[in-house]
């Protein structure tokens, strides 16, 4: 019977395994530290952005409507875009730390409100938002999450649409289906799954954070909303099928 020694094969494998394990632990600790530092930096940056945004809003309200109408429209459009990005980043950081209570919401009314909010952005981008919204459709959701779902879809449609080509929001309901549809004219999306990954952008020539559709996907997963992305008559169509009783 042979006796195992420190120099045998099993011992060498054991030492290699221990070395790899320690190296892996060190890498994990380093990445966790970097992630923590990144989250802290992002949280501080978000907090500091809120004050200048408020100052810009005050300055915007003081600009004469008649003399600088076009300039005021572009400032308002930029403000809405900045606030949208601010809110998206804040939501991404805080969504696991706060309890998001659900209630009965009028999806029809809230959809109209969010379209009105983004209309100045559409005008500044030489386009319009058309709507076909059935009245008094309700859902059980958290209001903040519903607004983020609407806002990020509208922002995405505007960002990747074409000037002078309107985007359309349609809300319809039948006995078996409740569908929220966003349509915008543009090239067919090559990978309809990758666009919902965090920091993924459809077109790197466009400005954007790449987190909007990831937030949409996260919210839809929470509420069992099915997303279907198709290309029809030159339009990219984002359908959201809400669960019905």
Short description, anyone?
This protein is an alpha+beta fold and 245 residues long. Helix 1 packs antiparallel against helix 2 and helix 4 runs antiparallel to helix 5.
The biggest beta sheet, please? 5 strands, mixed
Secondary-structure-based class equals: alpha+beta
Give the proportion of residues in helices: 40-55%
Strand order of the largest sheet: 2-4-5-7-6
Mean pLDDT: 80
The tally of helices reads 5
- The number of E-state strands comes to 7
Helix and strand arrangement:
Layout: H1 9-62, H2 69-94, E1 103-106, H3 107-124, E2 129-133, E3 138-141, H4 143-160, E4 167-173, E5 178-185, H5 212-222, E6 226-232, E7 235-242
Parallel strand pairs: 2-4
Antiparallel strand pairs: 1-3, 4-5, 5-7, 6-7
Task: Provide a descriptive summary of the structure in words.
This protein has 245 residues and is α+β, with helices and mostly antiparallel strands. Helices cover 52% and strands 18% of the residues. The chain contains 5 helices and 7 strands. The chain has helices at residues 9-62, 69-94, 107-124, 143-160, 212-222; strands at 103-106, 129-133, 138-141, 167-173, 178-185, 226-232, 235-242. The strands form 2 sheets. A 5-stranded mixed beta sheet has the order 2-4-5-7-6, with helices on one face. A two-stranded antiparallel ribbon has the order 1-3. Strand 4 (167-173) and strand 5 form a beta hairpin.
Essential attributes:
245 residues; alpha+beta; 5-stranded mixed beta sheet; 7 strands; globular
């Amino acid at each position: 019977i042979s006796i195992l020694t420190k120099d045998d094969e099993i011992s060498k494998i054991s030492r290699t395994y221990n070395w790899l394990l320690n190296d892996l632990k060190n890498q994990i600790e380093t990445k966790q530290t970097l992630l923590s530092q990144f989250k802290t930096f992002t949280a501080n940056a978000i907090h500091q952005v809120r004050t200048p945004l408020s100052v810009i809003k005050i300055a915007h309200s003081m600009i004469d409507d008649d003399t600088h109408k076009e300039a005021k429209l572009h400032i308002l459009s930029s403000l809405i875009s900045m606030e949208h990005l601010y809110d998206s980043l804040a939501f991404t950081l805080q969504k696991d730390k706060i309890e998001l209570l659900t209630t009965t919401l009028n999806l029809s009314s809230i959809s109209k409100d969010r379209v009105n909010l983004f209309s100045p952005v559409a005008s500044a981008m030489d386009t319009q938002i058309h709507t076909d919204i059935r009245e008094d459709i309700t859902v059980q959701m958290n209001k903040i999450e519903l607004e983020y779902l609407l806002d990020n879809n509208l922002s995405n449609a505007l960002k990747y649409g074409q000037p002078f080509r309107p985007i359309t929001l349609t809300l319809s309901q039948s006995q078996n289906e409740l569908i929220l549809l966003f349509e915008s004219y543009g090239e067919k999306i090559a990978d309809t799954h990758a666009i919902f990954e965090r920091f993924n952008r459809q077109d790197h020539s466009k400005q954007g954070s790449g987190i909007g559709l990831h937030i949409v996907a996260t919210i839809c997963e929470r509420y069992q909303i099915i997303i279907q992305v198709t290309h029809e008559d030159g339009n990219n169509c984002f359908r959201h099928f809400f669960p019905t009783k």
